[in-house]
Amino acid sequence: MAIRVLLVDDQPLLRTGFRMILEAEQDIAVVGEAGDGLQALDQVRALQPDVVLMDIRMPRMDGVEATRQITGPERDGPAKVLVLTTFDLDEYVVEALRAGASGFLLKDAPANELVQAIRVVAAGEAMLAPSITRRLLDKYAGHLPSGEEPMPDTLHTLTERELEVLRLVARGLSNAEIAADLFVSETTVKTHVGHVLTKLGLRDRVQAAVYAYESGLVRPGAQ
Protein backbone atom coordinates (compact mmCIF):
# COMPACT_ATOMS: atom_id res chain seq x y z
CA MET A 1 0.00 0.00 0.00
CA ALA A 2 1.29 3.44 -0.93
CA ILE A 3 1.81 6.03 1.80
CA ARG A 4 -0.96 8.60 1.45
CA VAL A 5 0.36 12.16 1.81
CA LEU A 6 -1.46 15.48 2.19
CA LEU A 7 0.53 18.61 1.30
CA VAL A 8 -0.25 21.71 3.39
CA ASP A 9 1.47 24.97 2.48
CA ASP A 10 0.20 28.43 1.58
CA GLN A 11 2.63 28.66 -1.36
CA PRO A 12 1.30 26.80 -4.43
CA LEU A 13 4.75 26.62 -6.05
CA LEU A 14 6.16 24.80 -3.05
CA ARG A 15 3.26 22.35 -3.04
CA THR A 16 3.89 21.68 -6.72
CA GLY A 17 7.57 21.04 -6.07
CA PHE A 18 6.83 18.67 -3.21
CA ARG A 19 4.25 16.84 -5.32
CA MET A 20 6.72 16.32 -8.15
CA ILE A 21 9.31 14.89 -5.77
CA LEU A 22 6.93 12.58 -3.95
CA GLU A 23 4.99 11.32 -6.95
CA ALA A 24 8.23 10.04 -8.45
CA GLU A 25 8.28 7.44 -5.66
CA GLN A 26 6.36 4.20 -6.17
CA ASP A 27 5.44 3.83 -2.51
CA ILE A 28 4.10 7.38 -2.00
CA ALA A 29 0.85 8.89 -3.27
CA VAL A 30 -0.06 12.57 -2.88
CA VAL A 31 -3.81 12.45 -2.19
CA GLY A 32 -4.48 16.16 -1.78
CA GLU A 33 -3.32 19.70 -1.04
CA ALA A 34 -4.36 22.50 1.29
CA GLY A 35 -3.37 26.16 1.53
CA ASP A 36 -4.03 26.71 5.24
CA GLY A 37 -4.80 24.89 8.46
CA LEU A 38 -8.58 24.97 8.10
CA GLN A 39 -8.41 23.42 4.66
CA ALA A 40 -5.99 20.86 6.06
CA LEU A 41 -8.50 19.73 8.69
CA ASP A 42 -11.19 19.30 6.04
CA GLN A 43 -8.83 17.37 3.78
CA VAL A 44 -7.65 15.09 6.58
CA ARG A 45 -11.24 14.15 7.37
CA ALA A 46 -12.11 13.62 3.70
CA LEU A 47 -8.95 11.92 2.46
CA GLN A 48 -7.60 10.08 5.52
CA PRO A 49 -3.90 10.57 4.69
CA ASP A 50 -1.16 8.67 6.48
CA VAL A 51 1.18 11.66 6.65
CA VAL A 52 0.47 15.39 6.57
CA LEU A 53 3.36 17.53 5.35
CA MET A 54 2.55 20.67 7.31
CA ASP A 55 3.81 24.24 6.92
CA ILE A 56 3.80 26.24 10.16
CA ARG A 57 3.10 29.83 9.17
CA MET A 58 -0.14 30.05 7.21
CA PRO A 59 -3.24 32.29 7.11
CA ARG A 60 -6.55 31.55 8.87
CA MET A 61 -5.14 28.67 10.94
CA ASP A 62 -1.43 28.05 11.44
CA GLY A 63 0.26 24.68 11.34
CA VAL A 64 0.58 24.40 15.12
CA GLU A 65 -3.16 24.55 15.77
CA ALA A 66 -3.88 22.34 12.77
CA THR A 67 -1.37 19.79 14.08
CA ARG A 68 -2.97 19.87 17.51
CA GLN A 69 -6.39 19.12 16.05
CA ILE A 70 -5.14 16.45 13.64
CA THR A 71 -3.15 14.51 16.25
CA GLY A 72 -5.25 15.26 19.32
CA PRO A 73 -7.49 12.86 21.24
CA GLU A 74 -10.51 13.71 19.09
CA ARG A 75 -8.69 13.03 15.84
CA ASP A 76 -10.62 11.34 13.05
CA GLY A 77 -7.82 9.15 11.76
CA PRO A 78 -4.27 7.95 12.21
CA ALA A 79 -2.59 10.77 10.27
CA LYS A 80 0.88 11.77 11.45
CA VAL A 81 2.26 15.27 10.96
CA LEU A 82 5.68 16.15 9.59
CA VAL A 83 6.26 19.89 10.04
CA LEU A 84 8.02 21.98 7.41
CA THR A 85 9.89 25.09 8.44
CA THR A 86 12.16 27.64 6.80
CA PHE A 87 14.38 28.02 9.85
CA ASP A 88 15.97 25.21 11.83
CA LEU A 89 15.27 27.05 15.09
CA ASP A 90 11.79 28.35 14.40
CA GLU A 91 10.11 29.13 17.74
CA TYR A 92 6.89 27.60 16.46
CA VAL A 93 8.51 24.21 15.94
CA VAL A 94 8.64 23.55 19.70
CA GLU A 95 4.92 24.21 19.91
CA ALA A 96 4.25 21.97 16.92
CA LEU A 97 6.19 19.12 18.55
CA ARG A 98 4.26 19.62 21.76
CA ALA A 99 1.05 19.64 19.74
CA GLY A 100 1.80 16.16 18.41
CA ALA A 101 3.99 16.50 15.32
CA SER A 102 6.22 13.50 14.64
CA GLY A 103 9.17 15.69 13.71
CA PHE A 104 10.18 18.46 11.38
CA LEU A 105 12.12 19.06 8.21
CA LEU A 106 13.63 22.16 6.65
CA LYS A 107 11.97 23.30 3.44
CA ASP A 108 15.32 23.37 1.66
CA ALA A 109 16.19 19.79 2.62
CA PRO A 110 17.34 17.58 -0.27
CA ALA A 111 14.66 15.59 -2.07
CA ASN A 112 15.94 12.28 -0.73
CA GLU A 113 15.62 13.57 2.86
CA LEU A 114 12.03 14.61 2.24
CA VAL A 115 11.18 11.17 0.84
CA GLN A 116 12.92 9.39 3.70
CA ALA A 117 11.19 11.60 6.26
CA ILE A 118 7.79 10.65 4.85
CA ARG A 119 8.64 6.96 5.09
CA VAL A 120 10.02 7.22 8.62
CA VAL A 121 7.01 9.12 9.95
CA ALA A 122 4.56 6.81 8.17
CA ALA A 123 6.24 3.85 9.86
CA GLY A 124 5.47 5.36 13.25
CA GLU A 125 8.93 6.65 14.01
CA ALA A 126 10.02 10.22 14.69
CA MET A 127 11.90 12.20 12.08
CA LEU A 128 15.01 13.94 13.41
CA ALA A 129 13.44 13.63 16.83
CA PRO A 130 16.22 13.20 19.36
CA SER A 131 19.02 15.65 18.60
CA ILE A 132 17.05 18.43 16.93
CA THR A 133 14.26 18.30 19.48
CA ARG A 134 16.88 18.73 22.17
CA ARG A 135 18.45 21.74 20.41
CA LEU A 136 15.04 23.37 20.15
CA LEU A 137 14.16 22.71 23.76
CA ASP A 138 17.53 23.98 24.93
CA LYS A 139 17.07 27.19 22.95
CA TYR A 140 13.62 27.81 24.40
CA ALA A 141 14.46 26.61 27.90
CA GLY A 142 12.73 29.63 29.43
CA HIS A 143 9.37 28.15 28.51
CA LEU A 144 10.10 24.85 30.28
CA PRO A 145 10.11 23.80 33.94
CA SER A 146 13.19 24.72 35.98
CA GLY A 147 13.55 21.15 37.22
CA GLU A 148 12.64 22.16 40.77
CA GLU A 149 8.99 21.16 40.40
CA PRO A 150 7.99 17.64 41.52
CA MET A 151 8.00 15.11 38.70
CA PRO A 152 4.57 13.89 37.53
CA ASP A 153 3.16 10.67 38.94
CA THR A 154 3.24 9.04 35.51
CA LEU A 155 7.02 8.87 35.68
CA HIS A 156 6.73 6.57 38.68
CA THR A 157 5.20 3.93 36.41
CA LEU A 158 8.57 3.54 34.68
CA THR A 159 11.28 1.20 35.86
CA GLU A 160 14.76 2.56 36.58
CA ARG A 161 16.01 1.20 33.27
CA GLU A 162 13.09 2.77 31.39
CA LEU A 163 13.81 6.13 33.03
CA GLU A 164 17.42 5.76 31.97
CA VAL A 165 16.39 5.03 28.39
CA LEU A 166 14.02 8.02 28.37
CA ARG A 167 16.83 10.32 29.53
CA LEU A 168 19.05 9.07 26.73
CA VAL A 169 16.30 9.50 24.13
CA ALA A 170 15.93 13.12 25.29
CA ARG A 171 19.69 13.61 25.04
CA GLY A 172 19.52 12.73 21.35
CA LEU A 173 20.90 9.20 21.27
CA SER A 174 19.73 6.70 18.69
CA ASN A 175 18.72 3.16 19.66
CA ALA A 176 22.14 1.89 18.63
CA GLU A 177 23.89 4.53 20.73
CA ILE A 178 21.69 3.81 23.72
CA ALA A 179 22.44 0.10 23.36
CA ALA A 180 26.17 0.80 23.38
CA ASP A 181 25.85 3.15 26.36
CA LEU A 182 23.87 0.64 28.43
CA PHE A 183 25.69 -2.49 27.18
CA VAL A 184 22.49 -4.13 25.96
CA SER A 185 21.18 -5.15 22.56
CA GLU A 186 19.42 -2.73 20.23
CA THR A 187 16.37 -5.00 20.36
CA THR A 188 16.27 -4.58 24.13
CA VAL A 189 16.42 -0.81 23.72
CA LYS A 190 13.53 -0.89 21.25
CA THR A 191 11.53 -2.88 23.79
CA HIS A 192 12.26 -0.34 26.54
CA VAL A 193 11.35 2.58 24.27
CA GLY A 194 8.09 0.84 23.41
CA HIS A 195 7.28 0.36 27.10
CA VAL A 196 8.03 4.03 27.81
CA LEU A 197 5.71 5.22 25.04
CA THR A 198 2.93 2.87 26.12
CA LYS A 199 3.12 3.69 29.83
CA LEU A 200 3.25 7.45 29.25
CA GLY A 201 0.65 7.46 26.47
CA LEU A 202 3.05 9.01 23.95
CA ARG A 203 3.03 8.55 20.20
CA ASP A 204 6.73 8.56 19.37
CA ARG A 205 10.26 9.56 20.35
CA VAL A 206 9.61 13.24 19.66
CA GLN A 207 6.88 13.35 22.27
CA ALA A 208 9.03 11.27 24.61
CA ALA A 209 11.87 13.79 24.35
CA VAL A 210 9.50 16.72 24.89
CA TYR A 211 7.93 14.93 27.85
CA ALA A 212 11.34 14.29 29.43
CA TYR A 213 12.04 18.03 29.41
CA GLU A 214 8.58 19.22 30.38
CA SER A 215 8.35 16.76 33.27
CA GLY A 216 11.68 17.92 34.68
CA LEU A 217 13.31 14.52 34.18
CA VAL A 218 15.90 16.19 31.94
CA ARG A 219 16.90 19.82 32.40
CA PRO A 220 17.61 22.00 29.35
CA GLY A 221 21.32 22.15 28.71
CA ALA A 222 22.10 19.08 30.83
CA GLN A 223 24.44 16.45 29.43
From TrEMBL:
Ranges where the HTH luxR-type domain occurs: 151-216
Segments crossing the lipid bilayer: none
UniProt-listed GO biological process terms: phosphorelay signal transduction system; regulation of DNA-templated transcription
Provenance organism: Streptomyces tirandamycinicus
Alphabetical keyword list: DNA-binding, Phosphoprotein, Transcription, Transcription regulation
Name this protein carries in UniProt: DNA-binding response regulator
Pfam families, alphabetized: GerE (PF00196), Response_reg (PF00072)
Residue ranges annotated for the Response regulatory domain, each copy included: 4-122
Stored SUPFAM superfamilies: C-terminal effector domain of the bipartite response regulators, CheY-like
4-aspartylphosphate modifications at: 55
PANTHER family for the chain: TRANSCRIPTIONAL REGULATORY PROTEIN NARL-RELATED, TWO-COMPONENT RESPONSE REGULATOR
Xref: InterPro entries: CheY-like_superfamily (IPR011006), NreC/VraR/RcsB-like_REC (IPR058245), Sig_transdc_resp-reg_C-effctor (IPR016032), Sig_transdc_resp-reg_receiver (IPR001789), Tscrpt_reg_LuxR_C (IPR000792), WalR-like (IPR039420)
GO MF annotations in UniProt: DNA binding
